[in-house]
Amino acid sequence: MKTRFLTMSFLLSGFLFMVAAPAWAQTPVSADKKLSTPQLIEAALANGEIDQETAYLYLSYALGDYDSLPVQYHSNVPWDGTFTLARLQKAVKTMKVSPKRTKVIEILSGSCSSSSGSLSTIVNTTHFHIQYSTIGGGLNIGHYQTSLETTWTKEIDQFGWAAPPVLSSNPPPGNRYHVRIAGLGGGLYGFVSSFGAHAGFVGNNPNTAWNDGDAYASCMVLNRDYSGFPGSPQQALDATTAHEFNHSIQFGYGVFDGGNAPDTAFIEGGATWMEDEVFDSANDNYNYLWPDFSISMGEYFEYPYPYWITFRGLTERFGPGVAGGGEQVMQDFWEEISQNSASEMLDALNSALTNKGTTLADAYHAYAVAVKFNKQCGGGYSYPYCFKEGANYVALAGTTPLNGFIFNSVSGSSNGSVEDNYALNWVGLINSGSPYNVTLQNTSTGGQLRGSVVCDTGSTLNVTPLPAVVGSGGSTTLNNFNPSGCASVVAVITNQAQTGGNPSFSFARSYTLTLSGGDFVPLDTYLPLVAAN
To answer: pTM, whole model, 2 decimals?
Structure first.
């Protein structure tokens, strides 16, 4: 797994920041109260206000001893702790021997212990061994039991994902899955850990048909009070159980860490995508919209949770929330990752989509159309260019922004760039007047640029592809596009050049988009070209 810089406590190779700090991390800690607790800590580290060892200590406080965390890092912005915890568990091995390291180890060791302590009440459901004490937010233990069992039923029994393995050396009672319901501070939904009294290395998950090699038994910690989270407490609980249990499955597949682990956008974005598959009305994932569309899927180094919408856009057409539907794409993806020793995430996703009769290049371009307009499916708006809940996305997060210049005459050009390994650009075009020609020229030394001109009539999307996918130095022209009847017109540009299964870098490929009058017909294409799919 690689990044250019890290966000949301992505402690890779024992370092919080490896190359460059994100823009939000270069402002004073107190400047933006919209940052989560881990982001505030990382911003302080990037600004030199604290050192690396202190950052690790503060992250451990955020996970397990919130009252000890200095108040300037307190935030109610919601966050999921699974990836932060996993990276911190790895990083502590490289910390120098010191009181800070001792404290970090002490806090982390208690995250999934079996000690009754303050969690003196135990209840067992069909699949879960639950420890808890008081529960707030208007919920009770019955709500937690139902949410957890509903999640198991949907993800394991109905969808057919492999159940998390049990630690044979110290299994929970009845070989159930261990859950603790505890007081978590600072917007922390919960987390899953591969270390604990009933968690640890398994190697081969007996619930899969192959040898996973590095599967882990895990345990889950849920917040005992979801009253301060977006939506209702029940919605926050449901989103959390679906999300965190998907991490439990990831640990069981042996894909959360190690050489075959995909990037965090797949791990966290995938778990966030699962929330809506299990609990359609939870809608907590709306609060993460939108991702940075200019950053490629192959190296999406930003805050990963918003990337769920990409997986939704790739899979929803096959059926949301139903066995064998969209979930099958992601299930096939994780199973292929589990069976490989190297991380070939883009190849695995393409393979999973091929099983459904399409390709990653085709599905991504269709998604790029859908996520620009976010039209609610129904009437003339149909898959793959719509979303079941598209109008709700826009109502909460606003419209997705254009990348390029909105032409005000049938003469002119717009320059832009789009990264290799599946990224996108949107350029607004004029929606009235005489027909015009649209030319896409690849002005870079690489890439495979694909374009479509999309007309929203107010009742349907008319998608007109440019004649060819263009490689270095090539161009393609759509002649005589007629904007009559269009409420809006957008040129959708994607870069489907894939430089590796898990690329280490994604080059931004420059292009020029040109409009010209439709009273002449230029040559459609000229070499060099990449054959259109």
So the answer is: 0.90
